[in-house]
Specification:
Order of helices and strands: HHEEEEEEEE
Strand order of the largest sheet: 4-3-2-1-8-7-6-5
Structural class: alpha+beta
Oligomer: single chain
Strand content: 25-35%
Helix content: 10-25%
Largest sheet: 8 strands, antiparallel
Number of helices: 2
Radius of gyration: 33 Å
Amino acid sequence: MIRNIILLAIGAAALAACNSESHTITANQAPDPMADELANAAPVELPPAIAASKTYRCKDNGLVKIDWLAGGQGANLRVGDATTAIALRAPASAPVGGNEVAPADGTLTAEGGYSLKGEASGSNVSLTLPGKAAQTCHL
C-alpha cells in the first residue's frame, strides 16, 4: 500500500510540473500559397441550368434538339445526330448605362450563321443554319 501511495505522489508531482498555459497543436502542413488570392477572388458563377429540352422537326424534314437555358440566357442547339451543341446566345446591343442589353426580339445567334427565334414555351421556332434559308421547326 505504501508503494501505491509513493507512485501516486510521484504522478501528482509530475502533473504539477506541467506547464498550465494553453497550447495550439497544428498539423505538419505547409501554408497554402494561394490562400490570399482565393480569399479575395470574385464569387464563382455557375452556368445556367437547362429549363427545357425539346426536339423539333423542321420544314426540310431534319431534326434539331434544343436545350433551352433557364432565365432566358440562351439555348444549346444540336442538329441531326450531332453530339456537340452549338451555344446560341442573345447578341449584345449598345451599352445603356454601362450594362450590355440584349435586343428585345428574342433572337439567339452563334458564330457561323446560326440564328434561332422562339421560346421554350412555344411549339414553333424559326431556325437559320449556315448556308441555308430560315425555316420553321415544330414539336
